[in-house]
Write a structure and sequence with these properties.
This protein is mainly alpha-helical and 193 residues long. The chain has a two-stranded antiparallel sheet with strand order 1-2. The protein has nine helices and two strands; from the N terminus they run H-H-H-H-H-H-E-E-H-H-H.
């Protein structure tokens, strides 16, 4: 028999907030101060490489090329390598302190999408998907999924500001909803989420 202990949403929220505050502790900052920039950069590189391997299986890079691409003297030779370097830039934007804070707004999502796929996908492939909406008996009017995403993001930000739901749950729900919206006219909507 397995004993089940239920953890309420409030307890989970307070516990994760406590862990977050513990991570800001002066002792930890002092302990890692000398290596903090290196640790953050390594985290960016590992996240980018893992994400690239997981989400972009039709783009391939030789294993030893991941590290050499990060050298200043190295230049990308193909779209796969360009996509990987773009992905490193995206993770730097998210992780490193020198960049502006990332907020989940339509403009930010569009900017990240263009940053990620710069020189990899055409501007046509980065357009929002259109869906037909019946206007009358014989006529159809195309609307962009962008409008639907914008409404969704407005609701998302309102819920986020209330701090009633643990952010990890909120973001997981966003990922699933973004994938289901199928926002862009390319096959990488899941990876973009």
């Amino acid at each position: 028999r397995i004993k089940v202990n239920l953890v309420t949403h409030e307890i989970f929220l307070k516990t994760s907030h406590l862990y977050n505050e513990m991570g800001k502790n002066y002792f930890y900052r002092n302990l890692f101060k000398q290596d903090l920039a290196h640790i953050k950069q390594k985290t960016v590189q590992q996240n980018a490489e893992s994400f690239f391997k997981l989400c972009f299986k039709d783009f391939t890079i030789r294993e030893n090329r991941y590290r050499t691409l990060l050298l200043e003297s190295s230049t990308p030779n193909n779209k796969s390598e360009k996509l990987y370097l773009n992905l490193v830039k995206v993770f730097e934007k998210i992780h490193l302190e020198k960049s502006e804070p990332f907020d989940l707004y339509l403009g930010e999502i569009q900017d990240l999408t263009h940053l990620l796929f710069a020189d990899v996908l055409s501007s046509n492939q980065l357009k929002y998907r259109k869906v037909g909406k019946k206007k009358g008996f014989l006529t159809m009017e195309n609307i962009s999924v962008r409008e639907e995403l914008e409404l969704y993001l407005d609701k998302f930000v309102k819920v986020q500001k209330k701090h009633e739901i643990e952010p990890i749950f909120l973001y997981v729900n966003f990922f699933v909803d973004f994938m289901n919206l199928n926002v862009y006219q390319n096959e990488y909507n899941d990876s973009l989420a």
